[in-house]
What we know:
By secondary structure, this protein is of the alpha/beta class. The protein has helices at 6-12, 23-32, 82-89, 98-105, 121-124, 128-133, 151-161, 184-200, 228-232, and strands at residues 41-48, 60-64, 75-78, 94-96, 113-116, 162-166, 172-179, 211-218, 224-226.
Amino acid sequence: MVEHGKKFNEVAKLVEENKEYTPDEACALVKQTVRAKFDETVELHIRMGLDPRQATQQVRGVALLPHGLGKQVRVLVFAQGDAEKVAKSAGADFVGSDDVIKQIEDGWLEFDTAIATPDMMSKVGKLGKMLGRKGLMPNPKSGTVVSADDLPRVIEDSRKGRVEFKLDKQAIVHVPLGKASFESEKIKTNMAAVMESIVRSKPSGAKGQYIKSVTMKSTMGPSIPITVKAAEIMTTA
Length: 237
């Protein structure tokens, strides 16, 4: 059993035992449970009623957070030729092909999201293990393998608060919702965008209860259980 410090135990008392909170209540309460000196990230953890071992029960997608993540997102684009020029003009922080791949092979990972054009994937593929562990591997399903024409839009979306999500081996989806310094209403709106995308991404092989539990927490804070039914019907409209 994990032992927590005095500060954690103090804020943990704010979360009532055996209670499930509404999204509004959770978004307000999470701000009260912040205890670190830095601006903690607010996280959403969704336990799914899916089997990660089954190909037909995978969940993977993208959500655009209306209020962003509260941090500067460093964008890397794997591109060459005209696509490289487009990416640079669109404001990507890092653009390249073989040179950038070599840097990453040598251990450089100073970026937050990676995008690639289709013609680059045969080269980028060898970085799969390294980037995959960090959740940085470009993937067509997550919308990060795009044509040169789509690069400006995807780069802009990444800067605004484009977050990817996928089912992990424990059948949980983990998504950041922004910073604890955000107003509770902004955290709620970002959560609604994530929940809309999760519900929309329900796989054909899903059986029984699709979403089993929803919890919210700050980086260093306690988990706050949220009523599943209330989370499922959230909308940004």
